[in-house]
Write a structure and sequence with these properties.
The complex is a heterodimer of chains A (303) and B (270).
Chain A: E1 5-14, E2 18-28, E3 33-37, H1 44-52, E4 59-64, H2 73-76, E5 80-83, H3 95-103, H4 112-118, H5 134-146, E6 152-156, H6 164-179, E7 183-188, H7 191-197, E8 200-205, E9 208-213, H8 215-222, E10 226-231, E11 246-252, E12 255-260, H9 264-274, E13 283-285, H10 289-297
Parallel strand pairs in A: 3-7, 3-8, 5-6, 6-7
Antiparallel strand pairs in A: 1-2, 1-4, 8-9, 10-12, 10-13, 11-12
Helix pairs in contact in A: 8-10
Chain B: H1 21-37, H2 40-61, H3 78-109, H4 111-117, H5 122-151, H6 160-184, H7 188-205, H8 217-223, H9 227-239, H10 246-266
Helix pairs in contact in B: 1-5, 2-3, 2-5, 3-5, 3-6, 3-7, 3-9, 5-6, 6-9, 6-10, 9-10
Classes of the chains: A alpha/beta (303), B mainly alpha (270).
């Protein structure tokens, strides 16, 4: 099956020398959740906007479902759903009117009444756009992206403005969307979101894709260190450096953090027991996507 | 939000016919019409204001020709003079007040982006605005004419056909001016300010309120440059005498073409 999205050597320069996207190539397969992960300003949004046909690439080719989104947009109407980071509806437009309008754009739209139930805005169906809260607007935009039953859906920072409970529900719902065969492109700067949802993740930094794999694959490949943490009031713990696999030992307040490569937990536990120490909060912190990201980009993601 | 809601497969229940662009245009027009009607500015300037002014003029001048009014109103009853003039005012209000505010709002606020991302055809977005504006213009015009007919019995238009043709031409010219304003104005507030200024300047200097006969030469010279002057001439000719003012018609058609062309060139689609 041919890829749903193909991007080859995409480049986007704003003005004369602001390079937003620099030679990005990627393929998104049918039925996967593909994540573009990066800090703000890394070039994620510009990349998807080129893919959506909202911006003209400076160079490179983009194909969505085999079509050029800039010149063959008509062929993609209703087959592509987009939730944009910056957009709005007319203030006086009612929720149901927007859904009804966007559903009318393509054949085979799903029943929007079901979507508003799912996304928790059913009681707001007669409310005007201006009267919605930030989270409600966000959920309306996701519903609008899905209402035409698209084959591929773009979600740009979809959980921004959602409370923690609503975020988790949103994740479940997006998984259901994927499970029904829709391809999802997820742009996010939330590590937990990418780790939880994405089948594959491309890490974007300074306009380039610096790594792409499954979240687990990235962790394995870039092998960040795992950490063993426990509480201990001994003043001197440098001897833990002698534990096999340990690279560093640091004290953070009441806790000691031993960083190294596995199987670190067993070795540290054995060393502690040897000294007659049995801390009851000994645990291991697995390397996460966030650690990989830090290793790869060398900087923290700002919120 | 409900975590376990069931949804049919993405492909289930696909309609067999692809909705044409026309259906989208009509749906958008219907929504735009409702949006305009929820806007207080529309109600005030397109529906209420012209009727209120007609009331004031009617109470002051009545509709009896001759007497004190002999010198003005082309010798006819004042309200026979004002009814077609205010129909032209309605088309101006729709064009210079409603359209620019709407178009700048859509552009600056990301509404157009939202539409574009969903591949709503841009001609449908613009077309729906113009169609909705035309419908509102018709409602406003009927209100003005009905008010005049009921309270200051004006005579029936001498040529309904020419009046309708003139109305469409006026609407087109002011829609083009409004679209151009919407294209060049940076924000909805700026557009509203510019629109209101044009509205009042034209209202007072085009013969729609102050009869040409009592205007100073300077006022008249300014009036010669105002599109509404030609709209008023065109509709008054059709209403009383059933004549077609070719000069006015050509000026309005020219404005439509030039302003329409410029606005399509200048407008940035979000």
């Amino acid at each position: 099956m041919p890829p749903v999205i193909t991007v080859e050597h995409l480049r986007k320069v704003y003005g004369h020398h602001v390079v937003a996207v620099d030679d990005v190539s990627l393929e998104v397969e049918q039925g996967e959740i593909f994540g573009l992960l990066g800090s703000n300003g890394a070039g994620k949004t510009t990349t998807v906007e080129c893919v959506q046909g909202l911006r003209t690439p400076t160079a490179g080719t983009v194909r969505v479902l085999g079509k050029d989104p800039r010149t063959q947009a008509g062929d993609l109407r209703g087959r592509m759903g987009c939730q944009l980071q910056e957009s709005r509806l007319p203030d006086h437009m009612r929720v149901w009117e927007a859904l009804d309008l966007f559903a009318s754009l393509a054949p085979g739209a799903v029943d929007w009444r079901m979507l508003v139930e799912q996304w928790g805005i059913a009681e707001k169906r007669n409310a005007s756009y201006a009267s919605l809260s930030g989270g409600q607007r966000q959920r309306l935009f996701i519903a609008l992206a899905l209402v035409s039953a698209p084959e591929v859906v773009f979600l740009d920072e979809m959980t921004t403005g959602l409370d923690p409970a609503a975020r988790r529900v949103a994740w479940d719902l997006i998984e259901q969307v994927r499970d029904r065969g829709t391809t999802v492109v997820l742009v996010t700067h939330f590590m937990d979101e990418a780790e939880r949802l994405c089948d594959r993740v491309a890490v974007v930094d300074k306009g380039r894709i610096i790594a792409a794999d499954t979240p687990r694959g990235l962790v394995v490949r870039y092998d960040p260190l795992e950490q063993v943490v426990f509480s201990c009031d001994l003043p001197e713990v440098e001897w833990l450096r002698g534990v096999p696999g340990a690279r560093s030992v640091t004290r953070r307040g009441p806790r000691i953090v031993v960083e190294g490569t596995g199987p670190l937990l067993a070795h540290v536990a054995a060393a502690l027991v040897d000294r007659g120490l049995t801390p009851d909060d000994l645990r291991v912190i697995e390397p996460s996507l966030e650690d990989v990201f830090l290793t790869l980009t060398g900087h923290l993601v700002e919120d | 939000m409900s975590r376990d809601a069931t949804v049919p497969a993405a492909t289930a229940g696909r309609r067999t016919t692809h909705p044409g662009g026309l259906r989208v245009l009509l749906k958008l027009t219907w929504i735009e019409l409702k949006l305009f009607l929820r806007e207080p500015m529309t109600i005030v300037f397109t529906f209420a204001f012209p009727v209120v002014l007609m009331f004031v003029l009617g109470e002051v001048f009545g509709n009896q020709p001759g007497g004190a009014n002999d010198r003005v109103f082309n010798g006819m009853g004042a309200m026979n003079y004002y009814a077609p003039a205010y129909i032209a005012v309605v088309t101006m209000s729709v064009g210079v007040i409603m359209l620019p505010a709407r178009l700048t709002d859509y552009r600056s606020g990301g509404v157009l982006r939202r539409f574009r991302a969903s591949l709503v055809p841009i001609w449908a977005v613009l077309g729906s605005q113009v169609l909705a504006a035309l419908v509102l213009g018709v409602i406003g015009a009927v209100l003005v004419a009905a008010f005049a007919a009921v309270f200051y019995p004006v005579h029936f238009p001498d040529s309904l056909g020419l009046l309708a043709a003139g109305f469409v031409l006026c609407s087109a010219a002011f829609a083009a001016i409004g679209t151009l304003l919407g294209a060049v104005m940076p924000s909805p507030r700026a557009a509203q300010g510019a629109g209101l200024m044009l509205f009042f300047v034209m209202l007072f200097l085009s013969g729609a309120s102050v009869p040409m006969e009592v205007m100073s030469d300077t006022m008249r010279r300014i009036g010669d440059f105002l599109p509404l002057t030609y709209g008023v001439d065109l509709l008054q000719g059709a209403w009383s005498g059933g004549s077609w003012d070719w000069t006015a018609a050509i000026v309005l058609a020219g404005i439509t073409v030039v302003a329409g062309f410029l606005s399509l060139r200048v407008y940035r689609w979000g």
